[in-house]
Structures are given as structure tokens and as C-alpha cells.
Amino acid sequence: MTKKISRRAFLKGSITVAGSVAASATVVSAANALTKEKKEPLVTLIDISKCIGCEECVYACQESNADKYPNPEKPYPKMYPSRVPIDDWSEERDVTDRLTPYNWLYIQHADVKLNGEDIELTIPRRCMHCDNPPCVKLCPWGSAKQEDNGLSRIDSDLCLGGSKCKTVCPWDIPERQTGTGIYLNLLPALAGNGVMYKCDRCYDLLEKGEVPACISHSTP
Asked: Which residue from 189, 192, 195 is spatially nearest to 79, judged by alpha carbons?
């Protein structure tokens, strides 16, 4: 699926990709940083000139994080007020052209003109793991947290799915799945409506001294 964007939007997106240099995890420094007593922030370098849009990183992410994905309970509780939407991606788990609770990385396609030549860029998109993440700072329940190495993640055991993190995220990254999480045991008609999901930069792999699946499965 090709998504065409304007020059202005592309420039904004390019800045976003460049910003990831100060926001995610490198193959070289990930394992080394984890051996230090005080972990240093990690970064991801994305060379979009080499990305061919094969989606290997997308499928590697899905395979590596499958056990973290939600298994919602149906039928879903009726929410109050009734206008509160149900966010259900459980029947669309194969979607790869956008972010969902079951897909934390996708490839954006951009048609641009470079030196008079029309070209297509393919750009991996996921959580940017901001240096000062608003999703963490403004989560009313404290379920979003930032680790010592800079990654930000949402604790699915604490999240009530209120979507404040998505509202304050500059890129609308987190996505909600209704019918799962602690809200079902509290006030299912009032308390949040599910759990928010996004890339957690494979924190469990980093803890083992490994690198995120999207990096280890990328082709040079």
C-alpha cells in the first residue's frame, strides 16, 4: 500500500527519522551499554537510502513480540457513555501497513522528487522512544515508563487504556485494544476500555545483551 505525502510532510518525516538517531538502539552499542553499571541511552540509526521496503523487520517484530500481544475477552463490556468507541484489532492481526496492537512497526512509502527524478522512499515507522517522552510524563496511571537506557514502554498489567499517551504523542503511536487488561477487574464500564500498545524496543532482548528484532533481522 503506497501512501503519498507532500514535500512538507516528507521533510517533517525526514526530521522524525533523523530524530531517531537520538531516540532508539544501535547494534554496536546495545550490548556494551548493558554491561555498564549505569546504562547509557541507546540509539537506532536508520539509513533509509538502504531500505527496500521488504518488511523483514516488520515480520521479525511480530514474531519476536507475539507473546506480548493481547488476547481480548469477548463480548466486550458496554462502556459509559455509549459514545466511547470500541477499538478491536483482534480480527485484523495480519495488518502490516499501519500501527496496531498487533503490529508495532510498519513501512511508510513516500513519492519524492530528488534532483529532478521521481523516486520512492520506504521508511520504517515505529515509536521514536523520545528523550523526554510525553507518553511517560503525562500517563495518569503511571503505566508508561522510561528505562535507564532511554526506551519507553507501557506496562500492560497497569494500563487502563485511557489513550492519554496517544493524545500527547506527536506521532499518535500507541494503539488500544479493547477487552483486555486490568480495567476488566475494576470498572469495565468506566475505566479506560482496554490496554494501549506500542513498540517497547524489545526491552527483554536488550536485558539479555541482544538487540531489537527489527535490527537483527534487517538485511545490509
From this structure: 189
